[in-house]
Amino acid sequence: MTSKSAKQSSHERRKGEAALSDFAEYVEKQQALRYPSSKQVAATAAAGSTQGDLEHHEELDDILDSLDLSDPTPRVRLRELLLSSSGDADALQKLVDIISERLSEGHGETVFDVGFENNGESMRLSRDEWEVAMGRLAEAAKKLRADTQLLLTKNVGGDLDGAPTKDGDCSGKVMIRKAPATVEEVIETRIAVVGNVDAGKSSMLGVLVKGDLDDGRGKARVNLFRHKHEIETGRTSSVGMEIMGFDTTGQVVVSDTPGRKLSWEEIGKRSAKVITFTDLAGHERYLRTTVFGLLSSSPNYCLLMVAANNGLIGMSKEHLGIALALNVPVMVVITKIDICPPQILEQTITQITRVLKSPGARKIPIFIKNREECINTATQFVSQRICPIFQVSNVTGENLDLVRSFLNILPHHGRYDADAPFEFHVNDTFSVPHVGTVVSGIVKSGVIHAGDDVQIGPDSLGRFIQTSIRSIERKRIGVPAASAGQSASFALRRVRRKDVRKGMVVLPKSDGAPPKVYREFVAEVLILSHATTIKTKYQAMLHVGPVSQTCAIIDVDRPFIRTGDRATVAFRFVQRPEYLAPGDRLLFREGRTKGLGIVKSVGYDPSKPLMSKQSESGVGDEQQPSGHAAREKSDDKVARDMKIEA
Do 350 and 477 sit in the same domain of this protein? Predict the structure, then answer.
């Protein structure tokens, strides 16, 4: 009996994994409609004006754009621009224009392939020509207030030289990063750090940010903790935030004094690129906090930490499942390799590879062991299929330089539209002396300036409070404005802290009707794991962005749903209405994660049930014989019992 149920559960698990992969692609398409980037908006408008029936392939469009098939005027070859004479101002200006275009595409940074044309053709550079090309590139970058950093070379010689190629041509990858004129222009990338308890998450962040190694007893993690009980137990229970800065030449911004940790203000002012780490709790007791942190911080990437001596155990799989469900690119770091026996490390690597290649994840694991692999993977990490894996030690410092190099090159990834109406999601509230009520969160779309009139809500009755923004801070530095994709904190006028909560939204002030809030909504959901069936009246904790509230199922498009099923479900918030929009991702759980989904429509009309009359009657007809058979079976049992008594 036991083996049969175990076999069934593994079959159901495989069914759930396969469904998860398909559902993730569907969610990504819906997200593109919810938060379209400006590039997508233009492409959609162009596609609509020509022919709406043609399927739109964005990747194919990018390839065709790079080939410039539509442009009748031939482009000047990059080789001619890079090897032009120092007095040729026209060629230099053309090179400056090309770099400027690439910098704007990469949000202030780009990786330039010296030695190859745009179409991938080799420039066949000799050693002397390589030196001339590098000098010309640096000269063009300086005109844009940008610095160059040589990442990798081929056939040039030196410490950065990778495996030589057969043709012997000189080539290399160069990072060009613009110096930000103001703090608002600093490139920001958000990374959520997840993993099981005791995987070394806080210790590794402490080592990366401070630059000093750990002593093996938790020295590096102490500065990251927010509460007294966290320091005593060594376990994170809250959502911790830590930042790491890189300057224009790709160096980590650290203090000149050993052991001293720079403040956020110092890092923000000296950096051209800032990585914001969200340190999440690994213990099962704090799963709600971890899920809230993952959904509310809108991470660009997810860093999964695995202890080499433990492997993927406990909450690691749960966290990985949530990251895959949110369609966030994942990278894995195996820690504690200095204390782990080789055969145990081999088992851990085999287990991680098996999980990443499973139908639910469908990732390609790439083990990064040297600088060349690190740089090639980082430049291609926009692909959702790649999953880089590092093996590090926080005590000996082994391979930590590869992690730093990887984070430095990591391309900016996300979907934001600064031209859309302003929308800000609150994920924390504070009361600051002499300032008043402060709310922090992510600007989902649009731009906001200090002094703008806004409204925040909804409260328990679904109403919005009119207020204005006193000041804006990013990374604890005052800024005049914040735009889409940035994390920021707003000080609000005439609002008490008890009137604001996590999960509220800040919207621009409107003279017309107030923003609509909804208690009921319809969503497309996928059940990941549930022991029995789910029907109407089922209640679970629902997470939609920063919103966490108990929800009840009021209607389903079939009699019941179980593990691996995709269904259209109507939910009702139990406590209060919330601000929602079609395309928002949701995740519901009852202890462990039960399912995930995406909002299809807001509001629900009871007169139009999701399940059609035919399917209801069909189900009733099907169920009748089984009930009749059950009655016959019970009658037989009664007769048999009577015979025994006689």
Answer: no
Query: 423-432 and 436-445 as β-strands: parallel, antiparallel, unpaired?
Result: antiparallel
Q: Specify whether the CB–CB gap between 262 and 477 falls below 8 A.
A: no
Query: b/e string for 124-147 if b means 16 or more Cβ within 10 A?
Result: ebeeebbebbbebbeebbeeeebb
Judge if 569 and 528 occupy the same domain: yes
CB neighbour class for 269 (10 Å; exposed up to 12, middle 13-18, buried from 19): middle
Same domain, 107 and 211: no
- 89 and 202 in a single domain? The answer is no
Residue 302 φ/ψ, nearest 5 degrees: -125, 130
Distance separating alpha carbons of residues 408 and 250, to the nearest angstrom:
6
Same domain, 200 and 141: no
Indicate which CATH number applies to the domain containing 202: 3.40.50.300
- Cβ within 8 Å of residue 597, ≥6 positions away: 523, 524, 525, 526, 569, 585, 586, 587, 588
Question: What tokens does 565 get?
Answer: 């099923």
The number of CA neighbours under 13 Å toward the Cβ of 495 is 29
Residue 644 lies in a domain: yes
DSSP reduced 3-state for 63: helix
Residue-wise pLDDT for 169-198, tens only, equals 899 999 999 999 888 788 889 999 888 877
Among 108, 143, 178, where does a domain finish? 178
Backbone angles phi, psi at 369, to 5 degrees: -115, -15
Q: How far apart are CA 458 and CA 539, in angstroms?
A: 22
Task: Give 124-164 as a DSSP string.
Answer: -B-HHHHHHHHHHHHHHHHHTTEEEEEEEEESS-STTB-SP
Residue in the structure block whose two tokens are 């995930």: 596
**Tokens standing for residue 297:** 């911080």
Q: Name the domain boundary from 161, 178, 195.
A: 178
- Answer whether residue 215 shows pLDDT above 70: no
* Structural domain range at position 621: 616-646
Distance CA 9, CA 616 (A): 28
State whether 308 and 401 are in the same domain: yes
Identify the CA nearest to 557 among candidates 570, 544, 545, 546.
570
Q: Domain total for the chain?
A: 5
The CATH number of residue 24's host domain is 2.40.30.10
| Residues contacting 564, CB < 8 A, separation 6+ | 12, 15, 16, 18, 19, 526, 527
Q: Which of 205-219, 456-470, 519-533, 581-595 has the lowest mean pLDDT?
A: 205-219
Phi-psi region of 155 (alpha: psi -120 to 50; beta: other; left: phi over 0): left
**pTM (two decimals):** 0.81
What is the end-to-end Cα distance of the chain in Å, rounded?
Answer: 33
d(CA 392, CA 338): 8
Residue where the block lists tokens 């809500």: 457
